[in-house]
Design brief:
Layout: E1 6-13, H1 17-25, E2 28-29, E3 44-48, E4 52-57, E5 68-72, E6 80-87, H2 90-115, H3 121-164
Parallel strand pairs: 2-3
Antiparallel strand pairs: 1-6, 3-4, 4-5, 5-6
Helix pairs in contact: 2-3
Transmembrane segments: 88-107, 119-144
Keywords: Membrane, Transmembrane, Transmembrane helix
Length: 165
């Protein structure tokens, strides 16, 4: 598992751009606010165009840190590489920025108290560092557990598309 919630990879394919668009459109439905989970859903939601796609996996549970997946299709008609990029959602990035800013100002206050000789600052420092590690672990686990699943699903979709050829 990488320590940064970002992944970029390439998948070689023999499919043309039009075949890739049709293949991904068959696996991606339009974004909706609410999904009915007892009906048969496609595995992804998002948008597919001639240039590429922007998708997310449809989950039956909440994961605010699941990756946004964007991809670009090859330009030729004889196949090439599909470029795929996975990033944190902008809302999650904004939440983490605010959380780390609050954390920074808290640590700054605790450290200034520690350096001025206040004995109460040491337990506060230990507590605040103890809060940093679980948040980092939560973000990384939530992102990478989904990123690995989505990468496997995208590769499987492309391989099945090549077998149908």
């Amino acid at each position: 598992m990488k320590l940064w919630p970002y992944d970029k990879f390439h998948i070689d394919t023999k499919l043309s751009r039009d075949e890739l668009v049709a293949l991904f459109k068959s696996q991606v439905e339009a974004r909706t606010f609410f999904h009915v989970y007892f009906k048969e859903n496609k595995p992804f939601e998002g948008k597919v165009s001639q240039e590429g796609f922007r998708i997310k996996r449809i989950l039956s549970y909440l994961n605010s840190f699941q990756p946004n997946v964007s991809g670009k299709f090859p330009t030729g008609n004889t196949g090439g590489q599909v470029e795929v990029r996975m990033t944190l959602p902008p809302v999650a990035i904004a939440f983490l920025c605010i959380w780390y800013c609050v954390f920074y100002y808290f640590i700054r206050g605790v450290c200034s108290g520690l350096f001025s000789g206040a004995a109460q600052a040491l337990p506060a420092l230990i507590f605040s560092l103890g809060m940093l590690l679980p948040i980092c672990a939560l973000v990384l686990y939530s992102f990478w557990s989904e990123a690995i699943k989505q990468k496997k699903m995208i590769i499987e979709i492309l391989r099945k598309g090549e077998e149908i050829e």
